[in-house]
């Protein structure tokens, strides 16, 4: 049975694995292998994920995890970017567990936190242009494309575009 819960220190390695594997699966056709591994090294390492699991505030609500038989199979988190405005910062699944409703459950947990604790009325997400997994997921959840902008983290990979989506919650 899949359980959705706020992450703790016992979930750190599982979060790293699911986010790294999810990132590789999502971007394998968009970026070079070197770029993908560089991003994973920067964002999904023990020091960073451990700190993010322990931190919860208005800007970062902490990680939520989907756990099946004590294995992390999904992870996500968000926070506030303005008064009444929430953001989904990260949401990845084990690539072998897609289309099982796990992403929807994680999104629901993050949204519930943002609404009930922080009073969010509007929720945003950035999705890489060309992301064939993320775009349909967020559109199916009611997010509407607002605009396209230059991505903020390119690490010499050239200019890539991010699509900004929003929905009322």
TrEMBL record:
Residues in N-acetyltransferase domain copies: 2-169
A Pfam family this chain is assigned to: Acetyltransf_1
SUPFAM superfamilies per the UniProt record, alphabetical: Acyl-CoA N-acyltransferases (Nat)
Protein name: GNAT family N-acetyltransferase
Source organism: Cytobacillus stercorigallinarum
